[in-house]
Amino acid sequence: MADRFEARRGALLAEIERDATLERSDFLVRAGEQLDRFLTANAERIRELGGMVLIDDDPDYLAVAPDGTFRSRARVYDEGRGEWVSETEVIETAAELAEIYNPADVLQAFIDAQAAEPPVEEQGEAGGGDEARLDDPYAGAADSWAAGQPDVPEVEDETDAATALYDLTLDFQERSQQAEAGLLEQFENAASGLLGMVRPLTIVEGDDEQLTLEVGGFRGRVVPEGQTGWQDLGGPDDIVRFYDPTDVFGDLAEAIADAYPHAAEAAEAEKDGRAGGPDDGDDGDDDEDEDDEGELDDPDGDDGEDEGDEDDDA
Prior knowledge:
It is built from 11 helices and 8 strands. By secondary structure, it is of the alpha+beta class.
């Protein structure tokens, strides 16, 4: 009896699972199609805005790039490393986005992104006009600065001071990495519409490190010092642990120049043209000045002729 009951129970659960799987798949397809229609209808607006940040609630982050792809970041605990790490994922289609985020939440995020910064005329009405905003022009900046400052505890001895200083150092180390990662991510978003039109670019290639730029952004892997296995660099947060963004952009510029020499030549020519334009104009003015000086010499010649006439008269 018990065996038949368990068998019947298992069959019922399997049927429910099957129906739920079908319904879920159907829901995701329809939700993905709805999101895709929305994104297609607003593609030009999103491109003109240069992309939009939809969710920025640390550690959750979601942004849509000018080309309509999405960047999602979440913080997860890496048991192997024993620490929390941020992972950045490129979401290419609306169907993929619907599997990760509730479509209603995504659409609400678009609504909130628009409402977060009202038009200039509405800002004037809400803030009491330009005069009210100019009463204390630094108040908003000061509040923003204060909100971003860390909480430094009061200490009474050298030991506590050293501990607080150590914590503060780690805090700003993390802030520095986040700022650098943000710079790389901004570049990825800005370049996303261009990367599909060029071939992958190799920035660094070595026995223990590889870094490239391709559709979807930066990709790489390294063998950390003291280890023998490769570690994937999943996104900007991982990259800044091993690379200085300044070096990354410098090496990337060299990689582009090697792969597309005409791009560097065109940029240098444009730069030289901007620098040399005013000088060319000055050279022309100098020629005119020389001509003017030549014209000033003519009166001297006339004077010579006049003196000759005076001698004749004598």
